[in-house]
């Protein structure tokens, strides 16, 4: 949950689930923001950069600190975080399904791996994320002229996978917003 979101009351907001201090203790200063979000009916989209964040988010949902069912975004391809590896990705998906049944999820690849994660997500029944916040290229030699160009790439992957993109109304239903 990046910043003060309750003033605009969006349907959902993005946030990681845990911060660790140098001694490995969890210190999540965003618990207060989580409470504000819950009070305003804002569902968090939990960013998971490692396995502990999946377990922390599931615990927070069980304890009623954040609204469920969870929606987790697996962020892969950042140095010193989750590697872009199909077996690791599948393990994270299985783990989320085990610790938080009914959760939805998205694969988010950073940089050149953005479309790889979109394809894997479609193949495994998840959702996709794309955009210039995470990736500025269509391919190695071509800068994306816009977010729309990246969205067109994901739409093409959806067509190949036989999974049409959701309308805004369908997306709200899928994500239980």
Provide an overview of this structure.
- The strands form two sheets. The protein has a five-stranded parallel β-sheet with strand order 1-2-3-4-5. A two-stranded antiparallel ribbon has the order 6-7.
- It is built from six helices and seven strands.
- The chain has helices at residues 31-39, 51-62, 86-99, 114-124, 147-161, 168-174; strands at 12-16, 43-48, 71-76, 104-109, 127-128, 137-139, 142-143.
- With 177 residues, it is α/β, with parallel strands linked by helices.
- β3, α3 (86-99) and β4 form a beta-alpha-beta unit.
User: What is the string of helix and strand elements?
Assistant: EHEHEHEHEEEHH
Number of helices: 6
What is the helix content? 25-40%
Provide the residue-averaged pLDDT: 85
Uncertain stretches of 5 or more adjacent residues: 20-26
**Structural class based on helices, strands and sheet pairing:** alpha/beta
Sheet of most strands: 5 strands, parallel
Strand order of the biggest β-sheet: 1-2-3-4-5
Name the overall outline.
Answer: globular
**What is the count of β-strands?**
7
Give the termini separation: 16 Å
Radius of gyration: 16 Å
The amount of beta strand, in percent, is 15-25%
